[in-house]
C-alpha cells in the first residue's frame, strides 16, 4: 500500500477537495496576520494550536497507515459518539466554509458508517507512544461512504481540542506490480550501450556493463540505491517507482515518495492472498505414499501434506521445451521423498481452469542435480502456495506460449542460455512482448513464512554457466511468524568463482512476471548479476484479486 498526494477527477471529490484547498489559503492568511502583532499570550496560544494541528495531522497519517493494511476487512458499522461535537465544531467556523463542511458531513450518512480506530490494537499501540502522553484525549475514526474514506482525528491539551480531516480512496494499479520489495541491496544502473567498431553497417546497440530495466510498476518500501545521481530513474523504472528514498541524495529524482511501513505493507498483501485462498473450495487432501488426485473444478484448492514431520520435501518437475510443444497440453510431476528416501510421484495435468495447490512443506522446482541448465516449460495455469516452507527454483522456467519469443531473442548473438542477450533492441522487444501477451499460461509460486531461493550450480558444486537465468511467474515470499520473506541467490558467489577462468559472470536475470519479497538478495549476490530485467503483464488481475492501493487525497487541520 502507498500513501500518495494526488488529485482525483471523480466528481464526488469536488467538495471535500475544494474545502481542503480553501483551508490552505485561510491558514496562510491567518499566519501572515499573526506576524503583524503578537503578544506573549498570543504566541503561547498559537504555539498550542500549532502543536495540536501537527498532532492531529500525525494521527490522520497514522490512521491512514492502519487503514492501508485493513481497508479490505475493516467493518464500518459503528456510531461515533463524538460525531455531533465534531460536526458542530467545523460547521460553526469560517462562515460559508463552515456551511460547506456541514453539508459534507451530512453526506456521510446517519452516523452509522464509522470504524472506531481507538478499538484497533495496532492503532491503540500508536496512541500509546510517549509522543502522545501530554494529550488528555486523542484518537481517530474512519467513515466509509460511497467508496470514500473520511478520516477524522482529534487531540486535546489544556482544555483545548482540535481536529484534522483526511480524505482517502482506493485506486487500481496500472498492471501487475513488477516488484514489491521491503529492502534490497541491489544498486540499480541505467542501461548503457555502444555500437561495435567492427559490427559493419548492420551493427546494433549492444549492452555494456551493468544495467536494469523494470517494465512494470515498482515499490521499494525502504531505500533504493542507484549508481549515480545523474541516473534517469524513468529509464530503469519505466512505469514508476515508489520508495521511501533514493540514494545518493539528489533533488531532481522523479519518483513517488512513500512513508509506508514494510511490515504493514506485506501483512496487507498476505491478507489479500489468504482471503483469496479462503474463497476457494478445499477438496480432499492429497497424501502419500498412494496419492490420488481428487475430482476438482474451477475455484477448488488441493491441500498437499507430508507423511510425517521429519520429511517435508516436495518436488515439482515441468517437462522441458524439448519434451513438450508450445501448444501441447501441459502437466507437471509432483514428487515426495519420505524419511527412508523412497520417492512417490503423481502427475497433474493441465485443465481449462487454473489448478490451485497449497503445500505444507518445502518445495523444489526442478532437480538440483540435473536441471540447472534445462528450460522447463509451463503449459497451463497453476497457483501453488507453500506454507511454512521454502521454495527452491533449480531450473529455468518459461511459459510454453512464450518460448518462441525467448528462443528468437537468444539467437541474437547467443546460441544457448549460457550466452547473454546483448542486443539492446532485442531485450526491449522481449520485455514488451511479454507485457502485452494475451496467451494464458500462468504460474504463481508463493511461500508463507519461507524464502524463495534461486539456485545456479549443478549439484553442490558443479559448474553451470549462466549467461541468462529465466524465471517466469508471479513469485512471492511473505514473512510470517518472524520467518521468511526473502528472495535469495545463495550460490551466485560460488558460480562466479567456478567460472573465474573465463571471466564470465552470472550474466542476466530475466523475470517474466513479478517478485514480491520483504528482502531481495544480498549485496554480494546481487553484485554478480550484470543485468536485472523484469516484465509484468498489463492486466490488473492477480488470482482474481484486483490490485489496489489506498491513496490519501488531502488533509485539513483546524
Write a structural description.
It is built from 11 helices and 32 strands. The protein is an alpha/beta fold and 558 residues long. It folds into 2 domains: 11-172 and 549-557, no CATH class; 179-539, no CATH class. It is globular and about 75 Å long. Residues 1-15, 17-43 and 540-546 have low confidence and may be disordered.
In whole angstroms, how far apart are the ends? 28 Å
Mean pLDDT: 83
Number of DSSP helical runs: 11
Number of domains: 2
Broad shape: globular
Provide the β-strand percentage band.
25-35%
Secondary structure: number of strands: 32
Unreliable residue runs: 1-15, 17-43, 540-546
Output the structural class: alpha/beta
Estimated radius of gyration = 27 Å
How would you sum up the major sheet? 21 strands, mixed
| Residues in helices, as a percent range | 10-25%
In short:
With 558 residues, the chain is of the alpha/beta class. The model is unreliable at 1-15, 17-43 and 540-546 (pLDDT under 50).
Amino acid at each position: 500500500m502507498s500513501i500518495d498526494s494526488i488529485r482525483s477527477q471523480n466528481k464526488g471529490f469536488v467538495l471535500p477537495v475544494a474545502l481542503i484547498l480553501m483551508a490552505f489559503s485561510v491558514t496562510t492568511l491567518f499566519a501572515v496576520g499573526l506576524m503583524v502583532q503578537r503578544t506573549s499570550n498570543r504566541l503561547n496560544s498559537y504555539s498550542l494550536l500549532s502543536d495540536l494541528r501537527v498532532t492531529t495531522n500525525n494521527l490522520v497519517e497514522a490512521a491512514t497507515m492502519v487503514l492501508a493494511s485493513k481497508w479490505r476487512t475493516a467493518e464500518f458499522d459503528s456510531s461515533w459518539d463524538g460525531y455531533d461535537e465534531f460536526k458542530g465544531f467545523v460547521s460553526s467556523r469560517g462562515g460559508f466554509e463552515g456551511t460547506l463542511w456541514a453539508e459534507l458531513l451530512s453526506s456521510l450518512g446517519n452516523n452509522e458508517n464509522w470504524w472506531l480506530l481507538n478499538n484497533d490494537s495496532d492503532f491503540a499501540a500508536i496512541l500509546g507512544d510517549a509522543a502522545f502522553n501530554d494529550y488528555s484525549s486523542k484518537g481517530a475514526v474512519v467513515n466509509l461512504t460511497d467508496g470514500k474514506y473520511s478520516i477524522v482525528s482529534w487531540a486535546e491539551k489544556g482544555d483545548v481540542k482540535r481536529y484534522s480531516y483526511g480524505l482517502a480512496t482506493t485506486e487500481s494499479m496500472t498492471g501487475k506490480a513488477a516488484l514489491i520489495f521491503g529492502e534490497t541491496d541491489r544498486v540499480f544502473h541505467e542501461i548503457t550501450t555502444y555500437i561495435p567498431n567492427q559490427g559493419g553497417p548492420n551493427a546494433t546497440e549492444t549492452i555494456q556493463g551493468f544495467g536494469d530495466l523494470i517494465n512494470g510498476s515498482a515499490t521499494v518500501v525502504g531505500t533504493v540505491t542507484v549508481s549515480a545521481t545523474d541516473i534517469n530513474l524513468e529509464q530503469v523504472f519505466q512505469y514508476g517507482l515508489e520508495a521511501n528514498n533514493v540514494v545518493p541524495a539528489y533533488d531532481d529524482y522523479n519518483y513517488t515518495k512513500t512513508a509506508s511501513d514494510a511490515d504493514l505493507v506485506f501483512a496487507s498483501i498476505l491478507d489479500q492472498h489468504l482471503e483469496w485462498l479462503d474463497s476457494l473450495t478445499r477438496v480432499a487432501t492429497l497424501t502419500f505414499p498412494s496419492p490420488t488426485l481428487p475430482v476438482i473444478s474451477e475455484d477448488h484448492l488441493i491441500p498437499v501434506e507430508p507423511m510425517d514431520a521429519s520429511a517435508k520435501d516436495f518436488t515439482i518437475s515441468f517437462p522441458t521445451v524439448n519434451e513438450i510443444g508450445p501448444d501441447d497440453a501441459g502437466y507437471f510431476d509432483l514428487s515426495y521423498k519420505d524419511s527412508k528416501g523412497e520417492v512417490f510421484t503423481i502427475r497433474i495435468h493441465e485443465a481449462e481452469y487454473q489448478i490451485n495447490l497449497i503445500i505444507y512443506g518445502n518445495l523444489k522446482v526442478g532437480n538440483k542435480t540435473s536441471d540447472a541448465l534445462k528450460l522447463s516449460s509451463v503449459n497451463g495455469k497453476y497457483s501453488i502456495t507453500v506454507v511454512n516452507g521454502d521454495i527452491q527454483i533449480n531450473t529455468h522456467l518459461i511459459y510454453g506460449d512464450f518460448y518462441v519469443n525467448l528462443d528468437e531473442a537468444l539467437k541474437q548473438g547467443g546460441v544457448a542460455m549460457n550466452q547473454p542477450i546483448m542486443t539492446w533492441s532485442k531485450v526491449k522487444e522481449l520485455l514488451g512482448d511479454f507485457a502485452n501477451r494475451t496467451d494464458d499460461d500462468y504460474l504463481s509460486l508463493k511461500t508463507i513464512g519461507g524464502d524463495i531461493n534461486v539456485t545456479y550450480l549443478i549439484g553442490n558444486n558443479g559448474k553451470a554457466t549462466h549467461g541468462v537465468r529465466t524465471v517466469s511467474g508471479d513469485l512471492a515470499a511473505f514473512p510470517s511468524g518472524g520467518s521468511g520473506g526473502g528472495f535469495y541467490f545463495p550460490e551466485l558467489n560460488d558460480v562466479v568463482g567456478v567460472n573465474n577462468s573465463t571471466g564470465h559472470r552470472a550474466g542476466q536475470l530475466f523475470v517474466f512476471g513479478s517478485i514480491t519479497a520483504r528482502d531481495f538478495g544480498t549485496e554480494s549476490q546481487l553484485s554478480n548479476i550484470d543485468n536485472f530485467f523484469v516484465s509484468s503483464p498489463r492486466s490488473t488481475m492477480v488470482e482474481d484479486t484486483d490490485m489496489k492501493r489506498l491513496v490519501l487525497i488531502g488533509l485539513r487541520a483546524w
